[in-house]
Structure formats: C-alpha cells, structure tokens
C-alpha cells in the first residue's frame, strides 16, 4: 500500500554512510546473511502496522456514515486526514531520523501511532475522529522514509529492491488484514470495536518490531539545520527524473485510494448488497499486492524500470475497466488487476528514487512518500465525490485519468532517456 524508499543523509557524514566504497558495501546485510531475516521480519511487521492503522477506517466507511449520519464524502475524511497528516509530516520526520537515528524515530512513531489507535474507538463525533486520525497519520510519517533510509544504509545495493519490496509487501498485508479483521468484527460489534482490535494488533507488531530490528551499523548522525534541508529538497525537486517518480507515485496512489475508499459503498449497495463481513473479506485481494511488490525486482530485471511501469499501468487500467461489469466475479478480477498493478508500480517507482538520488536519500524518499500520500488523500476525497455524483463509473473515470498520467509521464521519461543517449553515442 508506499508507499518510498531509501534514505541517507543530507550531510557529508550521512552521505558517506551510503557511499559505494567497497568496505562499507561488503559489510551490509545480504539475503541469507547475519541479521537479514530479523531485519526483514521487523520491517515487514512495521509495514503491517503502518497500513493497518493508516487505513483502519476505510472498509468501515458505510458503517461510520450510518452511525454518524454523514455522507460518503464526509466519512472519507477519516482516511484522507490520516494520509494527509502523513504526507505533511513525512519530510520533517525524515529530517529527525537523520539526527536521532532511523530505529529511534521508527520506534517513537509506532509508539505514538498505536497509542492514538487505542483512543480512536472513543471519538465522540466525526470532527474528533478526523482529528485523531490526522494525529495518527502524522505519527506514522516517521516510518516510511526512515525504513527505506535504514535499508539503503544497511542492505547491499543489489538486494535493495527486494528488501524494499518486502517492506511494501508488509504494507499490503497490513492493509489487507486490517480491512478483513475490521469487516468481520464490525459486522458483529460495530466499527468502534473493530478499530480498537486493529489498535491492539498494531501494539503487538510494534513491540515485535523493536525487539527484532538489528541495531544500525552504518548510520552517521546528520544535521537538523533548516538551510541544509531546504537546499537538499530544492536539489531533489530540480531533478527531472525524481519529479517524474514523485508524480508516478502520487498518480498510482490516487487510483488505489479512490477505488478502495469507495468499493465498500458499491458492494454494500444493490445489485450486490453484500454484508459488511463479506465486504471486508474482499480485501484479501491485497495478497496479490504482496506477491507483485515482492517480485518487482525480477520484473525490473526483465523489462527495465520503464517497461515495468508500463506493465503496471496497463494492468491497473485493465482492472478499472473490468470492474465496471455488473458481475461480482468480474468486479473481483478487476480488483485483483488493480491491486497487482498498483503495488508493482509503487515498488518500482519507490526503489528508483533511492537509486536516483545521489545525496540526501532520506529526503528524496520523504518527498516520494509525501507525493504518494497526497495522492492517497486526493484519491479518497475525489473518488468518493465522483461516486456520489456519478456512481462507480465516476470513480473509475478518476482512476483511468490517473493511469493515463502515469503512462504519459513514463513516455516522457523514455523520450528524455533517448535524447540523453544520443550525444553520448555521437
């Protein structure tokens, strides 16, 4: 569901920690090597907790609408506030991770997020619920960029795409399990108990994460000087390739956020009229995302980065169009394709950010995460608004436009790469 993806420091010391020198590279973790399994499991669980908390209300929006007497658009703010909070705070949190360490920031972020998660069930009104969700999203901002920065510093470059794919796979498992659990629990005991259960699950994940994650070996504390941060951000935003990757992440997430915010309303209404528990189980489709994200490295190896993005965009578009059918099996197949395309595209784009940035990788990753979750917030609100105005075809229309944006940007990248190769060849 990142989401983003690598990181190092804006300072000379932190940049050196992710340099390509042989001694540092040789001491990093590799698949099958010491600490790699513990690290992979720890970050997988962090991904589970992040997405389970971040989207804990998404499958419950029809129940929240009914309980609080609000529209789909109003209820969607419980999702948009969380992703928006993350988008706003991911860059400042990445700067804190440069100074205080990746593991420290991730631990603190999870601690605050799970604490708020235990308070969410007691929100007395929609504004209070939205406010708590915004705080929760802001706290979770410490996870994505810090996790990928940790991986960039502690894992060998050849294993980086695979390691990030596993973290993204944890996102998909968290998104899936959170929605499935909340669906069935809410059907019996209401949405408040459902989000409370997710809070307890996230506590367990947070504790296991802290116990399992190996201490960093290549982190060098950086500076918190605002001038350095601003200069690094300006450098990243001036890079055409990074700008394209940020836009691609935002557009992919616009599709995903819109589809999964609205799908509950569509499936609980005629002609499907499914019960809440069954609607929650629909999110088992996320398992497809787990597979597609974890195999993104092999996909890039066969097709190249741009080829993988074309395939991911085409798969997502095919799923959107298929979901228009008035047949439940075809709608489910459409969701499978949307999910597979989204997670593959996200893993490819996010890992490319880490490889492209030559310095300040934590900030480069944070900017990707910010764009990614802005896309999620936009998709949630615009998708819900389109559904209210034109039904499911309206939401699909928003998604198709976003996919066309991904394809257009990728084509622009292909043309730019060809133009750069011509002088070199000459």
From TrEMBL:
PROSITE patterns: MFS (PS50850), SUGAR_TRANSPORT_1 (PS00216). Residues 35-420 form the Major facilitator superfamily (MFS) profile domain. GO terms for cellular component: plasma membrane. It is a multi-pass membrane protein. Gene3D superfamilies: MFS general substrate transporter like domains. PANTHER family: BLL2771 PROTEIN (PTHR43271), INNER MEMBRANE TRANSPORT PROTEIN YNFM (PTHR43271:SF1). This is MFS transporter. The lineage of its organism: Bacteria, Bacillati, Actinomycetota, Actinomycetes, Kitasatosporales.
